[in-house]
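Private note to self, pasted from the team thread so I don't lose it. Backbone tokens:
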């Protein structure tokens, strides 16, 4: 009977791993498709890391805008990351996690700027933090906060003197 219990536990573990892999892969691909679509819709809203606006124009009053995203890693990638920690090296699943969170936060910041009528965001900064650490202090979720100063360039009348 102990062999049956052991096989049963291994079977459940493998089923959870496969389910985590399939569901995580599906959700990640769906999220990337959504990100690409929204990035195309907001590509005309410019984002700069520079602190100062160009001196050659007039702008609306600046307004702070921000976007925050919390993204979680799936069970399968968490398992692979724990194995990678044993041998060392680059953890691709966490790179994907941080990239998705970063792009999502920037999109949310740009959407807030668009809703305020801005056409550019200056002095953009990103803050990243670990939200939840699971067993053995492995990162399970990450938050990225994107913030900056939104403005709209005012049209200058072309007067001839």
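Design output:
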């Amino acid at each position: 009977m102990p062999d049956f219990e052991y096989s049963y536990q291994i079977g459940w573990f493998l089923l959870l791993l496969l389910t985590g892999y399939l569901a995580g892969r599906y959700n990640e691909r769906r999220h990337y498709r959504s990100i690409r679509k929204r990035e195309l819709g907001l590509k005309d809203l410019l984002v700069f890391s520079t602190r100062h606006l160009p001196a050659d124009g007039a702008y609306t009053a600046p307004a702070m805008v921000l976007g925050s995203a919390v993204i979680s890693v799936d069970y399968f990638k968490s398992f692979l990351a724990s194995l990678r920690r044993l041998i060392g090296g680059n953890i691709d699943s966490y790179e994907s996690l941080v990239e998705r969170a970063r792009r999502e936060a920037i999109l949310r910041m740009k959407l807030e700027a668009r809703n305020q009528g801005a056409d550019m965001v200056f002095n953009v900064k990103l803050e990243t933090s670990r939200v939840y650490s699971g067993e053995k202090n492995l990162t399970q979720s990450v938050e990225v906060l994107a913030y900056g100063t939104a403005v709209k360039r005012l049209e200058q009348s072309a007067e001839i003197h």
